[in-house]
Specification:
5-stranded antiparallel β-sheet, Penicillin-binding protein 2a (Domain 2), Beta-lactamase, about 20% strand, 2 domains, elongated, 7-stranded mixed β-sheet, 25 helices
Length: about 700
Amino acid sequence: MNQKNFLHRTLALGLAMVCIAGVLLTRLASLQLVPAENTGLASEAVETRTYNESTARGEILDRNGNRLISNALGFSVEFDYYEWDKSRQNEVISSVLTLLREQGVEYRDSLPLSNGSGGVISYTYEGEDSSGRHDVDRYLKANPKWPGDPSAEALLELMCEKYKVDDSLSLMEKRSVVGVRYEMEQSQFSAFNNPFVLLSDVDMEMVGKLSERCSLFPGVTIGVKSTREYSTDFAAHILGRTGKIFAENYDEYKDLGYPKNAVVGIDGAEKAFEPYLRGIDGTKVVEVDRWGSILSEFYSEDPKPGNNVFLTLDLGMQEVAENALAKTLEDIKAKGEKSKDKEGADVEGGSVVVMDVRTGEILAMASYPTYSLKTFNADYSSLLLDKLTPMLNRSIAGAYPPGSTFKMATALAALEEGTITPDTKIRDMGVFHFYDYSPACWLWNEQHRTHGLINVSEAIKYSCNYFFFDVASRLNIENLNKYASALGLGQKTGIELAGERAGNLAGPESRAAKGGGPWNAGETLQAAIGQSEQQFTPLQLVSYVSTIVNGGTRYQPHLLYKVENYSYADTVEQTAPSVLKKLDISASALKAIREGMLGVTTEDGTASSVFRGYPVKVGGKTGSAQTRAGRSSHGIFVSFAPYDDPEIAVCVVGEYAGTGGSVAPVCLAVYDYYFHLNQQQEAQPLTGGNQ
């Protein structure tokens, strides 16, 4: 190539580059100086944001279709990751929390440190095995450079340093800010777990206050979400609540596709039936321009609402049971305070459980004292401090000595083992002498009288301890417990609710399991009348009675009636009765036991004054379970109706209520409702004794 051609080509290339540069500069100037609406750039998406779109949770209804928990639209305070200013986040958090406090709104986090009131920080968990202790250990493990076991004050300072919390804040303010930062970290606040929900279900006044100051709170937004709405004040212990996944439980939810900040059932039916109630969240894609204006929105995955759960509960019966239990226990207390012996004056809590003996369906399950789900958050602190433990579901987590209500189990074992027959008669001598042990019948202790010569039906009717002492001395504990265990006593029933206790079936086996001493024969006598170390829940007792009176079929107690899809168009699942065990109870044994239970409520039986003149034949059994010295006995009453063709069984427990007959009126209210009776039955003093 000659010199001339080379120069020409170089000049041409230079001119071309100048032209290209000019075009680019002109275009750049145009983009910077010309309004976007005149350039068409506003229609060009410069950022795509992805949001998790929560969906509606299924509703909870009773067996008749009455809504117990439904959904309503509510407002939440959220942090939007895409707008979140990390350089100012502590300042924003502190300001928002201050505004909440000014409006009387309490924010609670799961960090187990006190709020710093009084200038002191302390751990709020109790015991080494508590979930709060586990949370702290897990958090310290995630920060390996920190000391292994810092004091509460030291942990707060370490967290303040980690999160760069301003030292000018007060102790309480520091604690509040690190609590939010801790929750944000635990929920993995990011573009993948966006947004972070600071507070759910805030009112319009709070929304207005935040909106007024939106320029001061970059990244703080108001979300509109589906929230739980409680349509009843009853069944709080059964229905349960929803909340964020606890950190220690996330592993079990992670594999099911839950985001870390998901709202799930945390107790009661909300937790038990989470797989049905849970909706599948959708994914919303938002395209925005460089100024943050939304250009388009669409779902890459549509949200799918949850299914609706029908419980076996009858809301009307639940209401009757709760009201009758509360009134009866309050009346016992008032009467006891006026009496000379103060029996029942120290009454505390109680429970009533109603079961369909033909299916295992739970028609009502009440625990006293109770609380309101509608105001739970506001009441939480006082509920936690209440010595009567209103948040405890006594029906499944309260274990009580059954007292004389256990005598049907002893009778069944003796009859089926051939120790006695229905016609066997034993003479009550008042005091039963057994080696060096000499327990007495309650009638001998109270009136220095005896029940005379009686058979097993009469022994149940009059609750004769002597008769059952004699039977137990011949039966032995192994044979007794073979039948008690088959009846489900001392073991969890398997009902769907969490927190059920197994109780304890007294005997050498349970004693050894607890590391206790040897079992002696004299203890069998006390176990046979429901004392010793016998401890059963009200649900176990009603299931045991149901099994006997229905002829020996032990059904699985359950609360799930059916499941329908969200539109109520299709049935997803219908629960069928499930048989746990079939006992081969002889007709003669069944007849003898049921006749004894009928005797309890008629003539001069131990609860006859309560049921006198009642239009429905009821079988029952009173029980007065001894407690520690200085306290009244627990009052327990179990029953079934109608006598000739049993349909339902009822168990009522009154803590320190004195006698089983004193709580029997609760059953009348339940039967009035079930059999559509309007008459009011007033309890009278018992004439047959206090068992």
